[in-house]
Structures are given as C-alpha cells and as structure tokens.
Amino acid sequence: xxxxxxxxxxxxxxxxxxxxxxxxxxxxxxxxxxxxxxxxxxxxxxxxxxxxxxxxxxxxxxxxxxxxxxxxxxxxxxxxxxxxxxxxxxxxxxxxxxxxxxxxxxxxxxxxxxxxxxxxxxxxxxxxxxxxxxxxxxxxxxxxxxxxxxxxxxxxxxxxxxxxxxxxxxxxxxxxxxxxxxxxxxxxxxxxxxxxxxxxxxxxxxxxxxxxxxxxxxxxxxxxxxxxxxxxxxxxxxxxxxxxxxxxxxxxxxxxxxxxxxxxxxxxxxxxxxxxxxxxxxxxxxxxxxxxxxxxxxxxxxxxxxxxxxxxxxxxxxxxx
Length: 321
Ligand SMILES: [Zn+2]
Ligand SMILES: [Zn+2]
Description:
- The chain is an alpha/beta fold.
- It starts with a helix and ends with a helix.
- It has helices at residues 3-6, 48-57, 76-94, 126-136, 158-175, 187-197, 213-221, 238-246, 276-288, 292-310, 316-319, and strands at 14-17, 23-26, 35-40, 60-68, 109-115, 141-150, 179-184, 204-206, 225-228, 252-254.
- One zinc ion binds next to loops.
C-alpha cells in the first residue's frame, strides 16, 4: 500500500487499509499547537508533495529533512523546494475546514541535516568527507546527521562506524552545528565516543528514542535533546513512555523518521511527516493527562525547541566562503 494510492482521495484525512481492501478513516488528533517533524527522509516517499500538503493541513510547520552524503542525490535540496511549491498548490483542494478560528494551513519550513549514516560508514572516504564539508556550508543545513552507530544491522564494520562517527563529531564542532544521532544497540560506545570527543556545544539530538528511562538518564545529564517518534505510540512501549516523562520539557522533540516508524494507530501504512500528529497526541496523553491547557503549553514548547535547535542562524563557519 503506497501513499500514492491514497491520493485518489485527494484530501487530508488519515486512512488505514482494512483486510478486505477498503479504507477506514482514522480521526486526526486536534492539537492546540504547531508541530515539528525533526527527522524525515521525505525523498523516499512515492509522492513527497502530497505528504507535505497533508502535513500542512495537520499544522506541521517545520520539517528537518535528512540527507545522506554517501547515498542521497544532493538534488534533494532543490526537490524539496519543488515539492513544497506543488504542495502549496494542492492544499486548497484538500481541506474543507473553514479556517475562521484557527490559522489556515501553510506549507512547513524545511531545514536539512546532512551526514553519513552508520550503515554507509564504509563509503565515507576522503571524497565523501570533502563533499560533506562543502554541503555543510549551505545555510539551509542546520545539523550534521544522522550520524552514529548501528550494531543491529552492522552494515559497516564497527571499527569503521566508530571512526566515521568520530570524524563527523569533529566536523560538526568545527562547523558549529548540532549533531543528530542514530544509535542502535550501541549506546555505550556512542556515549563513550561523545564523552571523549566532547558533546558539541551547538547541541546533540538523540533521534527516534526507543529505550527506557534508565538508558536515557545519562544523555539527559549530558544536555541532549530527545526526539520521540512512532515507538512512543507502540502498544508494548511503556518503557519509552516512561522515558518521555523524565525528558526535560525544554529538550523534548517530536519526529517521524518517515518513511519508517509509522505511529499507532496508522501502523501498516507508509509514514509521512503528517503522521507526527499521532506521536504528539501520545505525548499529550502521557505528559498532560489530556489537560488542554497543559497540552497547549507542552506542545508549544516542543515546537519552540525544534526551532531553537534546528531552525538556527547560519554559523560563522558556514558564512565563510
Ligand atoms: Zn535513524
Ligand atoms: Zn532516519
């Protein structure tokens, strides 16, 4: 089931496919704040413009697009701009809501994180590093990532992953940019390397956090931002929800990791940035016990956190020619 097939409906409703092939409409949470998706690979969707338009209709106003320096075509920068223009054209025909008491949908602002994913560490040679340094000078880039260690798939030798992670932490610090971390079954080594290198002053974002509060504590103590995505909504993920509860409000973030990690109740469908609203709604349920005033203040803060960390001014290094 692709999101392109959903386009036949040409609206912003969420639909989940039933076993008999028909669709059931899933009510979208009505959230009292703009929402940010701090981690998306939208170029992997069949129809990114449609997803961007749907995200706009859900009040998603900021998206950090991830670009892999070894794997992705750098045309993604221009393509995001093109898809955003196409989304703006689609929006008016996609919603029938009268926007008298809330702002009309607007396409989200995009910034970019660029780095070498640990899967591709084996390909991060001198040429890739030079390419990364050049791309980071683009002032649309606001972070180095996703970088880190993935010992689950081990698609690159662990020794190489650690070395490439180290090199990219140094690059981020040189550039004055935050890092977006991908760590899977490798939190001890990841924490040790960051402690040795020093956590970047511009910030460290632990992406797609899917473990419990015990692991999280040292990252919080080190000053990291923590982004929660689909896993915080999964039925068996009480540990992850406990982790959200100990995350300081001024370092809490929402994300999707689209096209992966679709949140409940949409699991089984391909994930787009619009699905971040279900993750945000779960955080409201867990952290605010559905108190509407608390929800508004919490989500407002989470959105501001994303802008503060990722919609940053160009660094002095980026302005160097
Ligand atoms: Zn990741
Ligand atoms: Zn990712």
